[in-house]
C-alpha cells in the first residue's frame, strides 16, 4: 500500500544528528558490545549482533570502532549494561517509549525524568504507553537502487515472509513480524536488493498530532532524550509531518 514515508522522517532526524555522530557511534559500540557479549562475536551465528552491525554500517560507523567493540566483548571486560524502558507523554499528550542501555539505573532514571519534566512532558509507570506500540521488523529499500516496481516488490516481500509494504516516491518500506525479520531481510538481500535500513523498531498503533503551540517543547524533549548517553532509541506516537 502507499502511504507517508517513515523513511523520510528518519532521514531528516539522521541529518539533524550529523553533528552528534560521535555520540551515535558510542551508543552503537555499546549495543555491539552487549550483543557480542551475550550471543558471541560471530554475526553469522548471532542475529542480534548482525542486526546491530548492519545498523552501525548504515550510520557510517568506522570499521575500527566496530572491531574495537567486538574485541572488548571477546576480552575479559566485566562491563555490563542493563536494558531499561521508560514510558510517558510529551506535550500535547503524545505517547513516548524510550529504550536505554545503562550501567547506572539511578543516573539514567534521573536524567530521563528531568528531560520529561523540563520540557512539558510527564513520565509514566511501566506499561502506561507500551500497549500503544507494536514491535516490528522494519526494512527500507531506496528506490534509486532497484528497477523493481511496486507490484514486483510486493510479490518479493510476500514471498520473503513480510507483512506489509508501504511505497513512497523515494523508498519501499517493509514491515515484518519481529520473529521473521532476519528471514525476510536475508531473503530480500539474496534476491539482489540493497537494503538502506534494517532494524527492529516500535510502531505506534495510532498517532497523535502535536499541537502547533507544543511543537517546540515536543522537539526539545525528543532531542534531550536522544542526547542522553544511555538512551538508545526514542519512539513516539506523533503524527508525522
Automatic annotation (TrEMBL):
Name used for this protein in its record: Probable transcriptional regulatory protein JF72_05040
Database matches in InterPro entries: Integrase-like_N (IPR017856), TACO1_YebC-like_2nd/3rd_dom (IPR048300), TACO1_YebC_N (IPR049083), Transcrip_reg_TACO1-like (IPR002876), Transcrip_reg_TACO1-like_dom3 (IPR026564), YebC-like (IPR029072)
Keyword Phosphoprotein attached: no
Chief location: cytoplasm
HAMAP family assigned to the protein according to its UniProt record, in alphabetical order: Transcrip_reg_TACO1 (MF_00693)
One example of a Gene Ontology biological process annotation: regulation of DNA-templated transcription
A GO term, aspect molecular function: DNA binding
Keywords for this protein: Cytoplasm, DNA-binding, Transcription, Transcription regulation
PANTHER family membership: TRANSCRIPTIONAL REGULATORY PROTEIN YEBC-RELATED, TRANSLATIONAL ACTIVATOR OF CYTOCHROME C OXIDASE 1
Domain TACO1/YebC-like N-terminal: 5-75
Domain TACO1/YebC-like second and third: 81-236
Superkingdom of source: Bacteria
Residue numbers spanned by region Disordered: 1-22
Taxonomy of the source species: Bacteria, Bacillati, Bacillota, Bacilli, Lactobacillales
Protein's cellular compartments: Cytoplasm
Family under the similarity heading: Belongs to the TACO1 family.
A single cellular component GO annotation: cytosol
